[in-house]
Design the sequence.
């Protein structure tokens, strides 16, 4: 038998694989993502909001291949809006993706091509099928880091155009100590 090439700690999603890639997203790189620009400007732009580790067993853009990754979002808020990922659609629109929560609690905000936005609860063990054409963003609503694993097609690509302004059509904010999913453009 061949030795094992890649390991995942299924308790938290931590990965061990040769050639593991990683990136981090700081507050300063998330301009226009959070609604309260005033609050965003007052925070340290060097603060890390989330990190991603991922494995590309085939070259990016390969049709028929898959990538695997783990994302860790820190707890925190900009104004009353919780820390979250940038959020994206796939450049090749019909490419789907799986998200699976390992640690923490969150909301997976989804928006389809007809402009319908909804959220799924993320809790350890929750598994989320993100259909093609559906934009996706993860919000950490807890007081500890939120971690989730992801599996997506190696030719999907990232289109971040939807991430800014009112693109997702909703935000997740703290109200009286509780996370609330708010549709935008309806009531104030
Ligand atoms: C998951 C996957 C990645 C994505 C990452 C961070 O790990 O969906 O493809 O890059 O989350 O999300 P974003 O690209 O929206 O910042
Ligand atoms: Zn994706």
Sequence:
């Amino acid at each position: 038998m061949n030795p094992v090439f890649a390991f995942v700690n299924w308790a938290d999603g931590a990965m061990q694989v040769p050639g593991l890639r990683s990136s981090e997203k700081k507050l300063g790189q998330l301009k226009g993502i959070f609604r309260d620009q005033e609050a965003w400007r007052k925070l340290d732009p060097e603060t890390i909001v989330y990190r991603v580790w991922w494995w590309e067993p085939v070259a990016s853009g390969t049709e028929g291949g898959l990538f695997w990754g783990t994302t860790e979002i820190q707890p925190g808020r900009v104004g009353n809006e919780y820390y979250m990922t940038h959020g994206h659609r796939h450049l090749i629109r019909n490419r789907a993706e799986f998200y699976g929560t390992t640690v923490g609690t969150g909301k997976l905000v989804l928006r389809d091509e007809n402009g319908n936005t909804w959220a799924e609860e993320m809790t350890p063990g929750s598994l989320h099928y993100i259909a093609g054409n559906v934009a996706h963003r993860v919000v950490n609503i807890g007081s500890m880091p939120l971690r989730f694993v992801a599996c997506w097609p190696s030719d999907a690509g990232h289109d971040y155009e939807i991430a800014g302004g009112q693109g997702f059509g909703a935000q997740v904010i703290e109200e009286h100590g509780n996370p609330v999913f708010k549709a935008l453009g309806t009531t104030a």
In short: The chain has a mean pLDDT of 96. DSSP finds one helix and 15 strands in the chain. The chain has one domain: 7-183. Residues 7-183 form a domain with the Jelly Rolls fold (CATH 2.60.120.10).
